[in-house]
Amino acid sequence: MLKNNIFNTNNLFKFVFSVCITMVSFLCYSLYKTVSEQNLNKFDFCLESRCINFLTKEITGVIALAQFFGWLITLIAVIGGAMIALRTYVSGVENSNITNHIAHFSLFRDFVSSEISKRKRISPDTVDIHKWYSIIFPNSKNGSLKYNSKYMDFLNGISNVILGANYQIDNLKGDYKYKVHQEKMIDSMKNIGITLSRGPKNIFTEIEPEVFQLIDSVNVAFIENDILLNSIERKYMN
User: Fold this and answer.
1) Which contiguous run of DSSP H or E holds residue 126?
2) Could you tell me the residue ranges of all domains in the chain?
3) Could you tell me if 199 and 185 are in contact, meaning their C-beta atoms sit under 8 angstroms apart?
4) pTM
5) pLDDT tens digits for 107-131?
6) Strand, helix or coil at 85?
7) 201: Cβ–Cβ under 8 A, 6 or more apart, which residues?
8) Residue 4's closest CA among 83, 77, 81, 87?
């Protein structure tokens, strides 16, 4: 950012300097032509008030042009300075957003890693922390730490898988196919970056609660969420 600011400042200085040289050259030429055409160079050198007033009257146009050029240069410098200040501010905000994003993601990563270490059935390799974070906070790099409503849809999807299995057990006289439930749960977990492996029912039913606990702990810590997956009754666990 500092290099960009220096570069922009140097460019502005060069531009203003070039404009000044051009305008001064133009003024000198205009003054020369005025003095020559009105034969002012034939008068004796004089610094008396009447001489100055006479000269001022004769080169009124040149003076007006000089005033206009001065105003124009000032305007260019002010606008250029304002643009540099604005770009500096925007760059500062962007850098601040990136810094906050890195800090927040680091906090999230460390928290998730700590929670995973508390659970024997979950391997760190099965949790894509970066994807999970990106799903919850998609605009973190832009400075917004508001959680994404789409993430809530994913949580509702997981909840619906549980409720759907319960419904099958209640309404199909216990004719529950755990492989169907397993596939649905695996697909739902992929949405937030958690990979579940297929396996025997007893193994899968041991992993599932730990995954729900992990998700619940993250949600309680980082978002306002009323959905606690581990608190939902799971009749297929019996």
Assistant:
1) none
2) 2-102, 118-237
3) no
4) 0.66
5) 999 999 999 999 999 999 999 999 9
6) helix
7) 178, 182
8) 87
